[in-house]
Structure formats: structure tokens, C-alpha cells
């Protein structure tokens, strides 16, 4: 195998693409004695910048509330740029959705923990994520949606008639 055909996987750059922090109830929210509830959402995306350069982005929203009052809200996007060459096409989804996400996620966790503590709150450490299980779950959902759409068949729409 020549050097041109050798698989290449390299991190080109890790960067914080976007981050915002809102503390709508400050400063009074700091006087609350009750513990907050925590809601976390997470999503992943990737984009090909060239044939061999790919960006992978993990987006999270962290919302803490006491009752119906928002204590703080964080929205963050952590990204990585990867050079990926000579990887079989059937393996690319796993590389982008699992391998790259496993590399990017610790940076996101550190940035979220840092901004929470800098905002004056006890640190929040996002839980470890099994990106392979998340990817398999997403594939299963897509397959189920495709199956449901196929089972329903095409819809006949007759002009002038109400559905």
C-alpha cells in the first residue's frame, strides 16, 4: 500500500464555536436556598469542508431551574476539524459520529464546567456519553420513521376536497 492510500486520521483543530450564558434572575437568584433542577440536551453534527477535511460539532443546552425560575442557561457548541483520508466510505459515519465526537466532547465538558464556575455557581460536570449507542439509537429512529412513511404510502390529494 502506498503512502497515498494509507488511512489518515488527524486532529487539525479544536475550538469553541459558540457559547452563551444567561443568568436572568441575577443577583437575586444567588440568594435562593433551594437546589435547582438540571436539564441537558445534546446534539451532534458534521460537515465536509473538503474531500478530506471534516468539521464535527457537538451542541449542548444546559438549563437549571428553581421552580419555574431559570437559574442559568448555557448554550455551547464545541467543534473539531479533522483530516480523514483513505478511510472506507462505509466506516466514515462511525468515524464522524462516534470517534470524532469522543474526541470533541471532553473539550465541551471542560468549557461548560469552566463557565459555570466562573459564573459563581457550583460546577456542573456533564456526564460521559456513549456516542456509539447514541448513533445506533439515531439510526434506529431513522429506520423506524422510514418504515412508517413507507407503510403509510403516498397520499392522494384531490383539489377542492377537504382532508
Topology:
Elements: E1 8-22, E2 37-48, E3 53-66, E4 69-85, H1 92-118, H2 131-152
Antiparallel strand pairs: 1-4, 2-3, 3-4
Averaged pLDDT:
91
CATH class equals Alpha Beta
Looking at this structure, what is the CATH superfamily?
A: SecB-like
Number of helices: 2
Question: In terms of structural class, how would the helical and strand content be classed?
Answer: alpha+beta
Model description:
The chain is α+β, with helices and mostly antiparallel strands and 163 residues long. It has one domain (3-146): SecB-like (Bacterial Protein-export protein SecB, Roll), CATH 3.10.420. The protein has two helices and four strands. Strand 2 and strand 3 (53-66) form a beta hairpin. It is flat, with a radius of gyration of 21 Å. The N and C termini lie far apart (61 Å).
Summed up, what is this model?
The protein has a single domain, classed as Bacterial Protein-export protein SecB. The protein is 30% helix and 36% strand. The chain has two helices and four strands; from the N terminus they run ββββαα.
Amino acid at each position: 500500500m502506498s503512502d497515498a492510500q494509507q488511512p489518515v486520521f488527524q486532529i487539525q483543530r479544536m475550538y469553541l464555536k459558540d457559547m452563551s450564558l444567561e443568568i436572568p434572575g441575577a443577583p437575586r437568584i444567588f440568594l435562593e436556598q433551594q437546589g435547582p433542577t438540571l436539564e441537558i440536551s445534546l446534539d451532534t453534527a458534521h460537515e465536509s469542508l473538503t474531500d478530506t477535511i471534516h468539521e464535527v460539532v457537538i451542541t449542548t443546552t444546559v438549563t437549571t431551574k428553581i421552580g419555574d425560575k431559570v437559574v442559568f442557561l448555557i448554550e455551547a457548541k464545541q467543534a473539531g476539524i479533522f483530516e480523514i483520508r483513505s478511510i472506507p466510505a462505509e466506516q466514515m459515519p462511525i468515524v464522524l459520529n462516534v470517534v470524532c465526537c469522543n474526541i470533541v466532547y471532553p473539550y465541551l465538558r471542560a468549557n461548560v464546567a469552566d463557565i459555570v464556575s466562573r459564573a459563581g455557581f457550583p460546577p456542573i460536570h456533564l456526564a460521559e456519553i456513549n456516542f456509539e449507542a447514541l448513533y445506533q439509537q439515531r439510526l434506529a429512529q431513522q429506520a423506524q420513521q422510514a418504515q412508517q412513511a413507507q407503510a403509510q404510502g403516498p397520499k392522494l390529494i384531490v383539489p377542492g376536497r377537504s382532508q
